[in-house]
Write a structure and sequence with these properties.
The chain is of the alpha+beta class. The protein has a single domain, classed as 3-Layer(aba) Sandwich (Glutaredoxin), CATH 3.40.30. The N and C termini lie close together (10 Å). 21% of the residues are buried.
Length: 101
């Protein structure tokens, strides 16, 4: 399971408001494509909308406690941290998911 842990968002995608963040627009499109290729293998977890996921992932919980929310976003695949403080690209996430069992 690939989980993208994010900070506080105004909505589940972060694409609301008059000027949505371009990185979030790209991430949303990338996640849509990946979900088609890897059903039920990718989740976005925001502090605003899925805080329980943070409690269920000790590595991310420790990072946030030690470094603060500035460490986010954090991407985890099957319990292993792949990226911190940045969103992975579509190609990076696809390669990680393709190599995962």
């Amino acid at each position: 399971m690939l989980i993208i842990f994010e900070g506080m968002l105004c909505c589940s995608t972060g694409l609301c408001g008059p000027e949505p963040n371009q990185a979030l627009i790209q991430l949303n499109e990338d996640v849509k494509k990946l979900k088609e290729q890897f059903p039920k293998r990718i989740i976005r977890a925001s502090l605003s909308f899925n805080a329980q996921a943070f409690l269920e992932c000790p590595q991310v919980l420790k990072l946030v406690k030690d470094k603060g929310t500035g460490i986010l976003p954090v991407t985890v695949l099957d319990g292993k941290v792949l990226a911190k403080q940045k969103y992975m690209t579509y190609d990076q996430m696809r390669a990680a998911l393709s190599g995962a069992k």
